[in-house]
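Methods — Computational structure assignment.
A single polypeptide chain was analysed. Its primary sequence is given first, followed by the predicted tertiary structure written as structure tokens.
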Amino acid sequence: MSKIKLPSKPPKIDMTPMVDLFFLLLTFFMLTTNFKPTEAVIVDTPKSISDKLSPDKNVITVFVGKDNKVYFNIDNGSDSTSRIRRKVLLKVAEHYQVQFTKVQVRKFENLSSFGMPVKDLPRWIDATDQKVRDAMQTGVPMDSLNNQLEMWVLMARNENPNAETAIKGDYGADYKTVKKVLDLFQKYNMNKFNLTTTLEKVEAKLDNK
């Protein structure tokens, strides 16, 4: 007697739970991701063959634009709970007797580099239009009678003595401006620092001799 062969059906996989999980993860990352703030200036760094990577955390950075304006940035260190950026702002504000609200201080913690006198910082923080913010970037004063860059560097160094120091200068910047920054670093024995450059492509050639 012959056996009855039942028709075989291909297995079906219900993808509905997978799609739900995908959208849950997507929503989670969109809500928790912090986008990097826009830098105060676009710096076209000189090229070099050094392949050493510049630190992206725990670093004090001075930018020198091609217009020789100077900009400053300090992050919150390797441990963001230390809130170094907030502490530096309050120390500088106390020195120059500039008032910041709690909301302004909180906003400042999430911003990036800046270049302006301390008295203009509250308006820069409150500005909602990026064009308005860009127009206020006139450079951190660093002349002999009003060297605010020195105060920013000093307070940042005091709050985070383990932070690395970096200079990111445009290849078109005047060396005299860069030299002023170097002299400032040496004044506080900050003799070890990073010069940010762009890696230059080097073609290896075989010696046929």
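Note: Residues 199-206 have pLDDT under 50 and may be disordered.
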